[in-house]
Amino acid sequence: MRLVTIDDIRTAAGRIAGTAIRTPLLEQQWADQGPLWLKAENLQGIGAFKIRGAYNAVAALPEPARQRGVVAYSSGNHAQAAAVAAKRFGIPAVIVVPDSTPRVKVEATAAHGAEVVEVPIGERESAAYALAEERGLTLIPPFDHPDVIAGQGTIGLEIAEDLPDVEVVLIPVSGGGLASGIGTAIRALCPDAKVFGVEPELAADTAEGLRTGSRVDWPVDDRARTIADGLRSQPSELTFAHLREVLDGVVTVSEDEIRAAVRVLATRAHLVAEPSGATAAAAYLFHREQLPVGRTVAVVSGGNIDPALLASILG
Amino acid sequence: MRLVTIDDIRTAAGRIAGTAIRTPLLEQQWADQGPLWLKAENLQGIGAFKIRGAYNAVAALPEPARQRGVVAYSSGNHAQAAAVAAKRFGIPAVIVVPDSTPRVKVEATAAHGAEVVEVPIGERESAAYALAEERGLTLIPPFDHPDVIAGQGTIGLEIAEDLPDVEVVLIPVSGGGLASGIGTAIRALCPDAKVFGVEPELAADTAEGLRTGSRVDWPVDDRARTIADGLRSQPSELTFAHLREVLDGVVTVSEDEIRAAVRVLATRAHLVAEPSGATAAAAYLFHREQLPVGRTVAVVSGGNIDPALLASILG
């Protein structure tokens, strides 16, 4: 299996410039458990990192295939990302989302001109493949593709440029595209840094898989329990192979810790994070004993939280 | 009366580098009423722009005076700013705050090692002068000082660097230090841009003063009505003289518009803004008819909102 390289990530960086925002790396002065920077991917145009991988994958398509259009399935942010990428190229996009997706994400996707199809969470992948077949669309997967991984990896490039002496990088893990890409970049550019994935306890399949040495399947209904609705997927063979190479470990965080991290990010960092996007900060806040001491970057992967949920966490 | 110049602002920029964050200027893709960038001063270490002016003023003091310490009065964010600036120099700080100040701001100030004195809002200035006299401290005013104005002006330098063809700049106005400084920088570097102050309707003394041609006093109890607790001051002779020079107008926004802007900033821009910090965005959202069309920057001046208030706005 060929893994994504730093050269693939550099190529992706050239493609996405002008579409993805180069998000700020924000030093936190309140953080008294060791120096902390937040990579604020919640400040991307779509409110999440997913635009990087989706746009890179669409940009890499041969022109005739691209013109026929794309289809994507997603728990939410990849949906918006694929829709925006298609809009940029002026091509059709069909987005398959689980019917449990927060309204805020469904509406944001439709607002970008995409056709949105809602299906039960277990059927989203098969429905997307069927649509691709029927309509001649190219499937843009949320994580299981080298171009998607390379696109997400551009975050690692930016971290290495902005903080070359970073010592610890904390990255949410779901399907693993984000951690695969960032980990690959950090390994290449900051070889002394330690890279950790972060998962909810309720969707800790990657922690178990890396411990046992091979990918494990958790029932989708189990994974659907976590409040971190963006972290309910699990790695593919491709991303798992990357994670084995690039991760020094996985930290698991509880639901209460995720909620507390959303609150801390809002009140201390003045950033709105969705639960998935707050997990890396939760690891910093509540699991220092499992992490090396040092200059730490937590990736805040997204900010698309339902306002009512944010209100309940703050109130 | 000598007004602050672009050279003063450049000097301030050199002093505050390494203490104040160079905050990101964030392009907003959701903004369908014309191109919008947010200058995210809520992402400063203290959650507000005030560190720029306070640090510049402390840094500019002669060494013997600085060693005796400083005193400041403030509705909140300047308090934290003066405390942090003093801590950086290792000198004593006494902060006088109105007894109506949100707890989040009082606690943040004390956490920086300052002595906090709470007094009725009308007495904060006199109390600060009395403390300065008694203890030999230097008063660092929240806005009525050339070094404070020059420090806030560094925001304008950054806007001009990041978006040289900016056409409209929207700035919250209270005591007027922020708008005086930014306006001076924009006038010098982007002479074609229009610069507007933004005030709550309930504290619209500057709008009235510029209309009538001279500074007006509104009763402090009237100004205390607005939810924008950072915008309850009014200009001094010094800042009013600057505002006459640099503002093309003042837009006033309602309390409902301020609340709505806090919500939009959280849900669309993923930024936590305090009410005062959301007023410029409110002008963009709800008063387009009073503003020129064009590439617009709204300054999000701060993010220190009580979590319960943010929850009530989102819920």
Automatic annotation (TrEMBL), chains A, B:
Domain Tryptophan synthase beta chain-like PALP: 21-302
Stored SUPFAM superfamilies: Tryptophan synthase beta subunit-like PLP-dependent enzymes
UniProt cross-references to Gene3D superfamilies, sorted A to Z: 3.40.50.1100
EC supergroup of this enzyme: lyase
Cofactor(s) demanded: pyridoxal 5'-phosphate
Coiled coil (UniProt feature): none
GO-annotated molecular function: L-serine ammonia-lyase activity; threonine deaminase activity
The protein's Enzyme Commission number: 4.3.1.19
Biological process, per Gene Ontology: isoleucine biosynthetic process; L-serine catabolic process; L-threonine catabolic process
Record keywords: Lyase, Pyridoxal phosphate
Catalysed reaction equations from the record: L-threonine = 2-oxobutanoate + NH4(+)
InterPro entries reported in the protein's UniProt record: Ser/Thr_Dehydratase, TrpB-like_PALP, TrpB-like_PALP_sf
Family: Belongs to the serine/threonine dehydratase family.
Protein role: Catalyzes the anaerobic formation of alpha-ketobutyrate and ammonia from threonine in a two-step reaction. The first step involved a dehydration of threonine and a production of enamine intermediates (aminocrotonate), which tautomerizes to its imine form (iminobutyrate). Both intermediates are unstable and short-lived. The second step is the nonenzymatic hydrolysis of the enamine/imine intermediates to form 2-ketobutyrate and free ammonia. In the low water environment of the cell, the second step is accelerated by RidA.
Descriptive protein name: threonine ammonia-lyase
